[in-house]
Design a protein that fits this description.
The complex is a heterodimer of chains A (563) and B (168). Chain A is of the alpha/beta class. Helices cover 32% and strands 15% of the residues of chain A. Chain A is globular and about 80 Å long. With 168 residues, chain B is an alpha/beta fold. Classes of the chains: A alpha/beta (563), B alpha/beta (168).
């Protein structure tokens, strides 16, 4: 490898092959590619990192479909550029939907039956500002040391009213733990019949650290609250709740088609304040080229997390075992992922009830998922316009229900790219399909149509360009025919889908038109509402208006791939 | 040869290590910063909800533990916005205390750290914080301040040979 070429590498000479058997295409950092090569038995000494240009100008045709929606951090190919595995690494602790927002890049791999791995911190420490200063001050200034420790310990658990619990006669940590273990919530203020299970779940995993999976160590009571400047901050454990449980179930379902696995990035209490617990390579004497690059640890540097099935390997070792197996096209081992991703290990099955909201509250709740009767949906959104949309609505005849993903926006400058691209990819697999082995995702065989409902209020009602204005703009840019002809926005979208690759559509609408059967934009003005209604790829494919051979759909699929 | 900011960041961290600094975090571009400082109210220089320095390091000198924040760019002339970021941080007591809070020593925590409770009692100008800017040599002219609101500020510049050093 000549260091004067564009693809410079920090890899030591002994790891640089004369002739590469593999390439690691990176869209994130060179460090991530070199980290992968260094620790993979298959790649070490056999692979070179290659920077993938943001405009995909140097991406071979064979991997372009894996990058067409969004760009995963790493793609490993063989010497002929056939993709072998797609990898995403998220260091950031789960917050809102930030884990889901990257799912579109994994969707492309699943659609092409290419294995993929997602390294992320499934559980993490979080430091956050708190507004209830009066209460925190009161707890921190409690003069009785034992009482203060007890009160702060209670605060580290879920939703316990610590002061009332103390007044109820539970005054020691051991007494409280015993009551929780027995399920006796009568004197634990703030806990009910419905929430005692969650408290037991938390105690068992994070305080008692029981079971075959090593979870995070609970925050010590004295480190829970802190005054910083003129504000108070809380340190707590963030564990998978609604959005992360959806994510894990998405991986479960996707794995029915091809191995699509999450691996857990560990956190440690020792790093609580420095990095919210996250562990990185700082200086690695053995692999000095990986030092100072914010990379995850290498294999065998962290404790074993999943001890079930007699496992003695840490998560990073298992990740690299999976990478090596995928490179060898050996798909026989699940690397403990099925149990790890299923309900029971990191998330409680009861959370599923929270994934969708009461359909009767569609108009009362500003954002969320709703499964509602198709007839009721049509009545609200298409009343009086059935004739105009008849051709399209007929294609919904076979469905009884629709899945609505509703969002709200009041900031016209805030594009609808992140997190909605990934969130829609999550909903595509989680709520609208019967995922089966060998499923072809690009066919969009629906059991329920997906509706993306966008409410624009305030300044956004007037100023947000999503979605008609964006389509008008992109159509005007690419269409060279008679633009004075009165073409509907729907027909403009159809033209774009027939003639452009998906990555030529701006990211603000790309996944939205791909995953949504219908996009409904409502602009709420003071005295009235206006609507923009558009039928997306699943509907247009179902109706035969666009076809597999059209440019946008072809751009999703690896030619002669595994489909 | 394309030299990216990642090259400057790692070269700077390596140089600081050799000078006795303990690197706490390195945040190369494109990565996600683990050492976050809440954005000062109405900050225009910090584009995100929080601020992520490229490098944070600490060092014990005599009886004092010092904290160093470094911003890196390939071209020196691109550091103007980073200077503004540090100026905003240095003029915001909450941000400065938060930096110390993140570098604190605690039971079960790292060996080296600041005594946060003691620092809270000090005047802002006495906080043991320093700033630095790192860049590739011969990439333009820009005046780097020697102090930002009482706090020492230094420059780290690197030749191409240093930037391509494999550290082994």
């Amino acid at each position: 490898m000549n260091e004067s070429t564009e693809n410079f590498t920090f890899l030591p000479k002994e790891l640089i092959p004369q002739k590469a058997k593999y390439f690691v295409w990176y869209t994130g950092t060179l460090g991530q590619a070199e980290w992968l090569i260094t620790f993979s038995k298959e790649l070490r000494g056999n692979a070179l990192p290659v920077s993938c240009e943001k405009n995909l100008s140097n991406a071979p045709e064979s991997i372009a479909p894996l990058l067409v929606l969004e760009q995963p951090d790493l793609i490993v190919t063989d010497e002929k550029y056939n993709p072998l595995i797609s990898i995403e690494i998220t260091e950031q602790q789960a917050f809102g939907t930030n884990a889901q927002q990257r799912v579109a890049r994994l969707w492309s791999a699943v659609a092409n039956k290419i294995p993929s791995a997602y390294l992320l911190p499934l559980e993490s420490y979080q430091i956050e500002k708190r507004e209830n200063a009066e209460k925190i001050e009161r707890l921190l200034s409690e003069p009785d040391d034992d009482k203060r420790t007890f009160l702060l310990f209670c605060e580290t658990l879920l939703n316990i009213n610590c002061e009332r619990t103390y007044l109820n006669g539970i005054t020691s940590i051991e007494d409280l733990k015993e009551k929780i273990r027995k399920g006796d919530y009568s004197k634990i203020a703030g806990i009910t019949k419905e929430t005692i299970n969650q408290l037991q779940f938390f105690l068992k995993r994070f305080v008692d650290n029981e079971g075959e999976t090593v979870h995070l160590q609970n925050i010590p009571p004295e480190e829970h609250y802190h005054k910083v400047g003129d504000s108070y901050y809380v340190a707590y454990i963030r564990k998978p709740e609604v959005t992360d449980s959806m994510l894990l179930e998405w991986f479960n379902k996707a794995s029915m088609i091809i191995q699509t696995y999450t691996f857990k990035l560990q956190s440690e209490l020792v790093n609580l304040f420095r990095t919210d617990g996250r562990i990185h390579i700082i200086h690695d004497a053995e692999h000095s080229h990986l030092s100072y690059r914010n990379l995850p640890p290498g294999p065998k540097q962290l404790p074993v997390v999943h001890k079930f099935g007699g496992n003695r390997k840490d998560e990073i070792e298992l990740f690299f075992d999976f990478v090596d197996a995928a490179i060898q096209k050996d798909y026989s081992n699940d690397f403990l992922r099925k149990r790890m991703m299923c309900a029971g290990e990191y998330w409680d099955e009861s959370i599923i009830d929270k994934w969708t909201k009461d359909p009767n509250k569609l108009e009362m709740i500003t954002s969320g998922d709703f499964c509602i009767d198709k007839a009721a949906f049509f009545k609200v959104f298409f009343s009086g316009m059935e004739k105009y949309f008849q051709q399209y609505l007929t294609s919904f005849d076979k469905f009884d229900k629709v899945h609505i993903y509703k969002i709200y926006n009041a900031a016209p400058g805030r594009g609808l790219y992140d997190p909605y691209s990934g969130n829609l990819a999550v909903r595509d697999i989680l709520f609208t399909r019967e995922v089966v082995k060998n499923d072809d995702l690009i066919k969009f065989n629906r059991i329920k149509p997906l509706v993306f409902l966008v409410d624009f209020k305030g300044e956004s009602a007037k100023g947000h360009p999503f979605i008609f204005r964006i389509i008008d703009r992109i159509y005007d840019k690419h269409f060279s025919g008679d633009s004075t002809k009165n073409t509907s926005v729907q027909d403009k979208l159809i033209w774009l889908l027939k003639n452009l690759k998906l990555n030529q559509l701006p990211k603000d609408i790309r996944c939205h038109v791909l995953f949504s059967d219908i996009i409904v934009v409502r602009r709420h003005f003071e005295t009235n509402k206006t609507y923009e209604i558009l039928f997306g790829v699943p509907t247009l494919l179902r109706m035969g208006i666009i076809k597999d051979s059209d440019t946008s759909i072809k751009s999703l699929r690896i030619e002669n791939g595994n489909n | 040869m394309v030299i990216t900011e990642e090259f400057v960041t790692r070269a700077a961290a390596w140089k600081l290590t050799k000078s006795g600094w303990e690197i706490i975090v390195v945040h190369p571009p494109g990565g996600q910063g683990p050492f976050t400082i809440p954005k000062p109210p109405q900050s225009k220089a910090i584009e995100r909800g929080s601020y992520h320095p490229d490098i944070v390091a600490i060092k014990k000198e005599k009886d004092e533990v010092k904290i160093l924040l470094v911003e890196c760019k390939v071209n020196k002339t691109e550091l103007g916005e980073d200077i503004k970021k540090f100026e905003e941080l240095a003029n915001n007591p909450n941000s400065l205390y938060f930096i110390c809070f993140r570098c604190q020593k605690f039971e079960g925590g790292p060996k080296l750290g600041v005594d946060y409770d003691a620092l809270c009692k000090k005047n802002i100008s006495e906080l043991p914080i320093e700033f630095a800017f790192a860049y590739r040599q011969n990439t333009g002219i820009l005046e780097i301040p020697v102090k930002i609101n009482h706090f020492r500020c230094t420059e780290l510049s690197f030749s191409d040979k240093e930037l391509l050093n494999k550290l082994n």
